[in-house]
């Protein structure tokens, strides 16, 4: 089954609900970054949270979800857009195994105390960042607190990642439930009762629940209408061209020095761990270009020369 996200609203217009299955996305992140189990769980939760939050912004906008804790995990970052595309990384992918007394992966211990920030990058507007202190380091609870404290939207967020014994990702997914301004006391009570029954998201995901079934579990008898359904995937924006521009930005001296030391230049993307290697000839060509630019010699791109016949 492919990964996808649904956004729904109850027919009484009192609750907005989102749910996502992100197993393949988190699996790809684990493979790309070669994360150990607790790092997989931490990064997977941030990626799943970013997918859900990213689906709440306007088309063309994007969000960056950042967890900066004092624990050994270091910085965890994921960005996502409304198209269901996400990418992310964790500063320390090789975390030792942290387990709670009950044998669960101890994400809170790996993350530590610190801050959660959410940046909205909007077209035609200045980016906006809201941040809150981490309440538990479990990510889901921290995002719940962010929505409630920073955006004043009472919310419940559940994020779960299940890691298999062979370190691969068995299941991942999550939900966001938000109270709309007209929510009645009755609705709030019913929701609280349902949420209390859902002890672990990853267990539901492991049981093979679809996002629709997840919402049914959370919303109980409340009818809802699905407003949007989107496939979600791990997608990075890096490219060989951008990496080339990045090297060019280093300046001639640094480039020459690295080339002399390494014999080539390698650029690694934080987000997806792809590497782009430029050999001696390619770097020398770049150096010649930079030199020409410095001397003010206009660049001639032979591909752009058009020979007209008439
Ligand atoms: Zn990349």
Automatic annotation (TrEMBL):
Main localization (coarse): cytoplasm
Family to which this protein belongs: Belongs to the HSP33 family.
Gene Ontology CC entries for this record: cytoplasm
Protein name, UniProt field: 33 kDa chaperonin
GO terms for biological process, alphabetical: protein refolding
HAMAP family in UniProt: HslO (MF_00117)
Domain of life: Bacteria
Post-translational modification summary for this protein: Under oxidizing conditions two disulfide bonds are formed involving the reactive cysteines. Under reducing conditions zinc is bound to the reactive cysteines and the protein is inactive.
Single GO term (MF): protein folding chaperone
Lineage: Bacteria, Bacillati, Bacillota, Clostridia, Halanaerobiales
Record keywords: Chaperone, Cytoplasm, Disulfide bond, Redox-active center, Zinc
Intracellular or extracellular location(s): Cytoplasm
Listed InterPro entries: Heat_shock_Hsp33 (IPR000397), Heat_shock_Hsp33_C (IPR016154), Heat_shock_Hsp33_N (IPR016153)
